[in-house]
Amino acid sequence: MSDHFSGPRALSEPAADITDVYAFPAPDSPDHLVLVLDVFGKAGPSAVFSDAIIYRFRIRPVEIAAMGPEAAFAPSQTEFTFDCTFDVPSGTGNAVRPVQYGRCLTPDGRVISFRADDENGGVDDGVQVFAGQRSEPFFLDVRMIEKTAATGKLSFKPKGSDTLYGTNILAIVIKFDWRKMLNGGPLFAVVCETLAAGKRPVRIERVGRPEIKNVTLSWKQFDQINRDLEIRDLYNSEDAFDVKPDYFDVYRMRMNANLAFHDGLDGKIDWPFDQHGNHPLTKLLLADFLVVDASMPFAEASYFDIEHSMLEGRSHTTPGGRWLNQDFMDFVYTLYVNGINGPPINDGVDAPIAWSSKAFPYLAPPNPTKAAVA
Amino acid sequence: MIDPSGISAPAIWPAASPLTLTDGTIALLNLQAQIDGLEGHWTSAETATLIDLLILRGLILGRISDYERAAELANRAVGAATVDAAAYMARARTRAVFHRFAEALDDLDNADRMSPDDATAKRERAVILQAQGRYHESLAAYATTDDRVSQFERSAALTGLWAERGEADTAQRRYLDSLRSYRGISPFPVALLDFQLGVMWMRHQRLEEARTCFEVAIARVPAYAPAQGHLAEVEADLGNPESALTRLYPLAVSSDDPDYAAQLARILGEMGRDDESSVWRRRAADRYDELTATHREAFADHAAEFWLGPGKDPEKGLRLATLNLEVRETPRARELLAQAIDANIAGATSARCFSVT
Fold it and tell me: How confident is the model at residue A95 (pLDDT cuts 50, 70, 90)?
């Protein structure tokens, strides 16, 4: 799953477990950028945000440092953050969900208050913040992904079974006028984090690109050097913009091994390793942040377009980033297996239970629980 | 038997550590949300997670029905996937909860055969050996998992082990190590640890220390029913029965565990409120009979305590205390059996005296 249940530490605190991150130009307002952070996969109706966690959005202006096979980004040292925190909810009354209030500290030091589950959220001078339970926007067939890894054969069925069908997450959505709020750009790198609050906040999890930890780093069996090592918690503890050298080679080797496994699933090599023994995608994917061009108009399916253009030595024509409705598993398998040079790979799951809309807060309202439906 | 004079606890118990933890009310809402969210989504990994969550909720809310549901799911998981080591491990955990230790170890043997290098199974084995009172073997089993578990898990496991052995200083040192090494934000693991230490102090009759531990556990998770129940017991013993009653009434009414009704019966009896006491005694007695019929190993100890105390049936208490010692040879089980034997001898003596007069 995109980043659901990604590592032992995230599992122990579901409200800190980032399931997905999205960044896209607002479909309903061209001057605005939208960032989305989802936590708590398969959240039951009573799920609330933790009062002990800072939900952080980190944004850095980024330049394209190199094109072609050595394609790379150069993030600025300047950083802008939105920090969201939550109170202990008050009494439940007759409703299952208690009332919870939160605050968002903007990069310019303003505090925007909001009530969780309020569709309009909190609003202040070009910034709108929503937090609450919504329908899970991600969709995939985990069993067939696991079977693919176990058998070494693409195991997707024409009609798959969505592991996340009808489930809910907790989402934070921030929409803001990027020219007023950020300096630099229009290319920005976005990473979301959950941190244990306190005098010195400690990072619990971080997510930039989808399916880095689960599909791209979690399988141990293809890694001939560190095949016993569960590296996801280590990886989570790293600063996305400043990965320390101590374990860098461990991540690199694991990613090389797993990307090579995926490349071989169609029986041919689309991604020959470079002269340093690296898969051509490893460097770009270890730059684990979403890169979005805020000046471009909204596009439906533009994840990795900027990176793909860079690899091909041309200018990008879409905003990149990541929109909520993109069929990501189809995309990532097509990218990893045949480099988008062959037929699209379909994982057999083409839609979530409810599509996200193009109006704030974008994600669909929460689904009733299976028990309630029954 | 432990000699309490040999224990050197600090004069002032350290205050609750400044850990950053999710508020206990939120944590409980989210535990419920995790359980609800998994309903109807049962891959084998999800079933194992659901089983763990139900056991955790059972521990926190003192809900036997959660343990029963977990056991049912685990049985079904083993039935559905007879070659799944995780299913056997999950069932081992539920069997251990009901003190069916020998069967739990059989499940772990099966899990070991399927997945010989799995550190989780080794840790589960250590926990079960500890519960059986096989402390040396348990320590050896913990040692085999040393490099696979976090420092917190290791220290917490050893806190429990030394506490059960009655070695209070060592347990307390391990407890402080555990708090220092905790890197999570869930309040449950640390509250469970506070509780464990509280029980140790209670058994050593160090009631002030026990009270502090239970209060800390409740501060972390206000709905922690066994901590509330034990705090009530300690408060009553420290001469504050009214506060104890206030804590116990809601638990006794809402819980499917008879311990709270049993405590109410005892405290009300000691206060001379015999009519009220007998109401709660009957309620506890009926439920203990039910539970010892369905889960005899699991409730032998608490039921024995009840029959030796407010239940006033020392013979029944002796039978259950004997069974309890067969299930686990811990210092506490030996002590309980000794109490049961004493109670029966005293009862027999008094009966003889009565028949002479």
Answer: low
